[in-house]
Amino acid sequence: MIYNPSYVKKRKIKSYTALFLSTTAAFLGLFWLGFILWDVLRHGLEGLNLELFLEDPAPPGIPGGGLRNAFVGQLLIVFYATIIGVPIGLLAGIFIAEYARGTKYARTISILSDIMVSVPSIVVGTFIYAILVKPVGYINWGGLVAVGFLSAIISVIFGGLLSFIFKLVFPVKSAGAGKFVRLLVALITVLFGVVVFLFLSQKLVDKIQGFNGWAGAVSLAFIMIPVVLRTTEDMLSLVPWTLREAAFALGASYYNVIKDVVVRASITGILTGVILSIARVAGETAPLLFTSFNNSYFTTNMNEPIASLTVTIFNYAMGPYEDWHVKAWAASLVITLFILAITIITRTIVGIKYKK
Question: I want to staple 96 with a disulfide (CB 3.0 to 4.6 A). Which of 101, 104, 106, 168 is the partner?
Answer without folding.
Answer: 106
